[in-house]
Amino acid sequence: MHSRTTSAATAATGTTYGFLDYYTNATDEEDIEETENQVANTQQMEHTHMASAYITKHETKESIVESRRDFASLKERINSGMSIKESPLPFRKSAMKQSIKNSTTDRYGFQKTNQYISTKDYNDWWNEYCPYLIRRKAKWIKFLERNGLYYEPNLVPSRFPARSEEMARFVRKGIPAEWRGKAWFSFVGGVEKMKDNKGLYEALVNESTDLVNENTEAIEKDLHRTFPDNVYFKEQNSSMLDTLRRVLKCFSMFKPSIGYCQSLNFIAGLLLLFMNEEETFWMLVIVTEKFLPGVHESNLEGLSVNQGMLMLCLKQYLPDVWKIIMDNDDLGDIPDDDTSYLFFLPTLTFCTTSWFMSLFIGVLPIETTLRIWDIIFYHNSKTIFQVSLGIFKMLDPELRKFYCRAHGISTLFTHSDTDLTLKSTRLQENNRDVLGSDLFQLIQNTPKRVINTNLFIDTYVQNTFTQEEIRRCREFVVQSRQRHANLIDRRKELGMTHEERKELLKQERGVISGVWEERRMRTGLWNVGLNRRIKKIYSKGPPPK
């Protein structure tokens, strides 16, 4: 049993979560440098506050029934706010446009604007996006009817068409907001999982009413940090927060290998806008098992694996971006058979921590995040890496500019017959810190301005690889990291110095680089789609021992 908050994750990954930066203002972060006494006093106050919180937040069967009744009423308001009403087209366009344009919040209850998106930018985008949503819902209704599925006006469909290329296109163009919960739950097999575990969630709720441990303490502390700019989460004793508390407490009991980890509150909170309480619980279980395996567990090894996978994807598909990231750590030219960067992750992977921890919440604007979730839950975890590559592809021109400026050169790339190749130049030492800071800010902040979700998805989120290739990529990174870990243990046993360890790693690179030891395949070859020869090798399976 364990819980991890920002400080714990910082110790593990070397950085704070990016999604928290999105939901805290500058004044909150100015107080980071505190004296030891201030920290001790703050911790004591928090502990005292939590002790009282357990008394005031103790739930009974009666209070749970009342909370669920209030939540059902709140859900009606939420669904009404995000729904496209079945009324004459001109009225629908006018009503939706004006209701959002004249409001300070979007249709999900979030503040429309922030330091990255102005009111004008939001309203200009909404004026174009609103008619698009109306057209898409009309096409979805016809699509359901063509597939023999009855649609009753102003109600959410109970079933969706079978998987097909046409269905995938419809999902990519966006699911009607009020349908999202049922669609997501259907795509990931949630209905079946809930049926197979009938009554389990209620049993967990009953068991958790008096539960007090480090997980519940962390959950209580994070409840009011969850979407503080959202109108549905603002009220201190709202049914939304009561429901979120129950979901997270039950999850911590059901998944003891995770317990509670900060960022789960954001994922569960966003799910609650579209799903009921029990659906949200099972969806959170599925997300952590299927889409983000190991990412939230105590050692955060799954997060490191995902970061390594992203580095491999960059090396294969955006090699110039990969070179910039590696060069920022002064790693120089890395041989193809050297996979040590999968264990000693580059510094700039701190920027991408929240991409995996929060599934892009706070990384991209909320509408863009939800459209990405549509695709992720339909296509599986490969979309997470396709979106990550898409962000870096979008950042590519600016990354080159920063790199060029830091190196003091005017021409960064030379043309060859096939691609653009980054010139190998030694970074001036006095520019290294400036470059690192510029790159960090660019990667951290630019995605938060991606309000034009259609442009981002159509331009940058490509079907680059298959789920099977991502599975093999994961397997390769896990094996590589395990071999490096074994070498580190070997160094410790032998009492080797850092330089001796590096020499040992160099000698072992041939072993580390292979998916199968006897075949010694290079890191780029995790992608079975590269050529027929590699596909043939994989089809035969591992060599006999």
What does this molecule look like?
- This protein is an all-alpha fold.
- Among the domains are: 85 residues; 103 residues, putative rabgap domain of human tbc1 domain family member 14 like domains (Helicase, Ruva Protein, domain 3, Orthogonal Bundle), CATH 1.10.8; 154 residues, Cyclin A, domain 1, CATH 1.10.472.
- Helices cover 61% and strands 2% of the residues.
- The chain has 26 helices and 4 strands.
- The strands form 2 sheets. It has a two-stranded parallel ribbon with strand order 1-2. A two-stranded antiparallel sheet has the order 3-4.
- α21 packs across α23.
- The longest helix is centred in the N-terminal third of the chain and has 28 residues.
- The two termini are 39 Å apart.
- Pfam families: RabGAP-TBC.
- One of its GO terms (molecular function) is GTPase activator activity.
- InterPro entries: Rab-GAP-TBC_dom, Rab-GAP_TBC_sf, Rab_GAP_TBC_domain.
- It comes from Pichia kudriavzevii.
- This is Rab-GAP TBC domain-containing protein.
Provide the descriptors you would attach to this structure in a database record.
545 residues, mainly alpha, Helicase, Ruva Protein, domain 3, Cyclin A, domain 1, two-stranded parallel ribbon, two-stranded antiparallel ribbon, 26 helices, 61% helix, globular, disordered C terminus, small GTPase binding, Rab_GAP_TBC_domain, Rab-GAP_TBC_sf, GTPase activator activity, Rab-GAP-TBC_dom
